[in-house]
Amino acid sequence: MQIINTIGRRKTSIARVYVKPGKGDIKVNDRDLKEYFLSEIHQTTVKQPLSTIKAEGQYDVTVNVEGGGVKGQAEAVRLGIARALVEFSTENKPALKKEGLLTRDSRMVERKKPGRRKARRRFQFSKR
């Protein structure tokens, strides 16, 4: 049995994804998908690559994810699953690429600058 190992990143989240042929189980950090990602939106985000190629119930996915927030983690998992599906079959690549699931979203939080309240926000100006 072949197990594909890929990595997905988003903001400060890193997801190590292991995909193998199976009956459709998705485990995130040793917990069920619905137990880890409580929001329906995040569950849909994670399943998006599988639904794009109409492969729900064909692969077992195990994920170790750390860092960042819930949305960043969900999108990191999505990228990892999409990359694994391309490794299984290169026929999946055009459909996944068309949906933008193979592109790593490189946007990160801008650092705080000295003399500012946040990255760009200045302290309130007082004339008097």
Question: Can you summarize this structure?
Answer:
The chain is an alpha+beta fold and 128 residues long. The protein is built from four helices and five strands; from the N terminus they run ββββααβαα.
Describe what you observe in this structure:
There is one protein chain. The protein has one domain: Ribosomal Protein S5, domain 2, CATH 3.30.230. 33% of the residues lie in helices and 23% in strands. Strand 1 and strand 2 form a beta hairpin. The radius of gyration is 18 Å and the shape is elongated. The model has no long low-confidence stretch (mean pLDDT 94).
CATH topology name = Ribosomal Protein S5, domain 2
The first-level CATH class is given as Alpha Beta
Structural class by sheet pairing and helices? alpha+beta
* Overall 3D shape: elongated
User: What is the helix fraction of residues, given as a range?
Assistant: 25-40%
Give the name of the CATH architecture: 2-Layer Sandwich
